[in-house]
Write a structure and sequence with these properties.
Elements: H1 8-23, E1 37-44, E2 48-49, H2 53-63, E3 68-71, E4 78-79, E5 84-91, H3 92-122, E6 129-131, H4 141-150, E7 164-166, H5 168-174, H6 177-187, E8 193-197, H7 200-209, E9 213-217, H8 221-231, E10 237-240, H9 248-253, E11 258-260, H10 263-266, E12 273-277
Parallel strand pairs: 6-11, 7-8, 8-9, 9-10, 10-11
Antiparallel strand pairs: 1-5, 1-12, 2-4, 3-5
Helix pairs in contact: 1-2, 1-3, 2-3, 3-4, 5-6, 6-7, 7-8
Length: 285
């Protein structure tokens, strides 16, 4: 599983858009400061998993190309409250102007990584992989999906273009699940095909027709276990819907291959971070 971030052009466009939103035609408060060399430190105020360094760095460098950022942690690292994550050397106005935007990226993406890591831990020892969904913050899909990988999760399809996913509307349009699968294979033979089923009869039909993954939608525990028995590892089974921290472990222990969770990217609890001017307090980090 690669932790490579999106291309630099994507990161820079995210940052450019965010700075335009925050700075507008100028930071009128930072302009009150003398624009002299200064230092700052980045402090984490709660436990979490770090993700988003490329966006943090790009924000500061877009305002001060000569800023020096010395990281003390890597992407995907688990950190504890009170950890100094990085120190910066730059100019005071740029450091202050970049503060909120850089923190917004880092705290949001670290929140996604932290939530993902918590779910990955909950299924440890089972075969289940934790997947994200398309329920992402508008404009930040690639960033959040990168953060999911930092937390140990896996990406579902990126958008509507890189995999075919058949649901009830497609089955209705073609008159049968088999008809929809055959039409999808003919139209897009090179793309992964994911099929959602609502009954064990549909499951058996999907297994006969063939696809890359089968989504068993809202099955109760007994039906889910029967689905695992019927599939017998021939095609990976995915569960979505009705998943929370209370049900997650049981679903994984039923033997499914994947569990997709919209809340990883939709229900974001940002990690509490702060950027302060000056050297870090003694003994921290």
């Amino acid at each position: 599983m690669s932790l490579l971030p999106p291309p630099a052009s994507v990161v820079e466009e995210d940052v450019r858009r965010a700075l335009a939103e925050d700075v507008g035609d100028g930071d009128v408060t930072a302009a009150l400061l003398p624009d002299s060399p200064d230092s700052a430190y980045l402090l984490c105020k709660e436990d979490g998993v770090i993700a988003g360094r490329p966006w943090f760095d790009a924000t500061h460098r877009m305002l001060d190309p000569h800023v020096r950022i010395d990281w003390r942690v890597a992407e995907g690292d688990r950190i504890t409250a009170g950890t100094v994550l990085a120190t910066l050397q730059g100019h005071s106005r740029a450091l202050v102007t970049a503060e909120r935007t850089s923190l917004n990226f880092l705290q949001t993406l670290s929140g996604t990584a932290t939530a993902t890591a918590r779910h990955v831990e909950a299924v440890a020892g089972t075969r289940a992989k934790i997947l994200d969904t398309r329920k992402t913050l508008p404009g930040l899909r690639l960033a959040q999906k990168y953060a999911v990988r930092c937390g140990g999760g896996h990406n579902h399809r990126i958008g509507l273009y890189d995999a075919v996913m058949l649901k009830e509307n497609h089955i209705r349009a073609y008159g049968s699940l088999g008809g929809a699968i055959r039409a999808a294979r003919e139209a897009r033979p090179g793309l992964p095909l994911i099929v959602e089923v609502e009954t064990l009869v549909q499951l058996e039909e999907a297994l006969r027709e063939g696809c890359d993954r089968i989504l068993i939608d809202d099955f109760d525990a007994a039906t889910r276990r029967e689905a695992v028995r019927i599939a017998a590892g021939r095609i990976p089974l995915e569960v979505s819907g009705g998943v929370d921290m209370g049900t997650l472990r049981g679903i994984a222990e039923d033997g499914v291959d994947c569990i997709s969770i919209g809340g990883l990217t939709k229900h974001v609890h940002a990690i509490d971070l702060s950027l302060k001017l000056g050297p870090p307090p003694g003994g921290r980090g």
